[in-house]
């Protein structure tokens, strides 16, 4: 089931062992393993020989959880067509949709996928409120993924409501604006996305654009009125973060928009002070001196691997 060797599997398969559970680990069945390893042919073979599509492992996960967790679209569709319960819950009350959404597997978390009875996750949701929540969450995850990939046409398609536009990843608390590049930022801004929404680490889209050296996005955010002096969870502005990394170009852009150079972090440092803490190695030094510099820097950081 892991290697996908169909002939070998056929020679071993019998009605007595098709639903056997591993004696170790998660106590998975062959169907759990083949679904997790994206062996579509093996999954089909096991199902045709009576594999239980609703079998649960030690954590209460069904094979559909495994397929969704790794974003295996074809296996997901196959399991659903063969009767997998799209709302099956594990011991942590996670459904396959939760599993897909929590790991940004937007391609398999589509709540409109239909099972063998022609029903989708939305159809079988208990009430209208839950149906709307499922649909909005899926659209939100699709929008995040489109922003990460700078897929402008998909971004426009996903911007269906203010709720979706400002959707937050449940783990990182990132909004689409945190993930976006220039063309996408323009599109999101025109649709009314929030410019200053902090993520889990209190980083705004401005902090992230500065960190990643996305100068076009940085300039665009500031042009549209992003809060230039926004602070992260350490009380640092984007200027502090760029100064620490020695990102001169980002510093120039921030300074041109009037960022407060005297802003003090929670540790009591200005951007200029953190910039002088770790100076770059002087140019024209020998290889030996450069190694000494790296050694000193590693010693400061407690990093034993040079």
Automatic annotation (TrEMBL):
Top-rank taxon of the source lineage equals: Eukaryota
Matches recorded under InterPro entries: Ankyrin_rpt (IPR002110), Ankyrin_rpt-contain_sf (IPR036770)
PROSITE patterns annotated for this entry? ANK_REP_REGION, ANK_REPEAT
Instruction: Name the keywords, alphabetized.
Output: ANK repeat, Repeat
Signal peptide residues on this chain, from the entry's feature table: none
> Does Hydrolase count among this protein's keywords?
no
Can you say where the ANK repeats lie in this chain?
26-58, 59-91, 201-233, 234-266
Look up keyword Nucleotide-binding and say if it applies: no
What is the protein's given name?
Answer: Poly polymerase
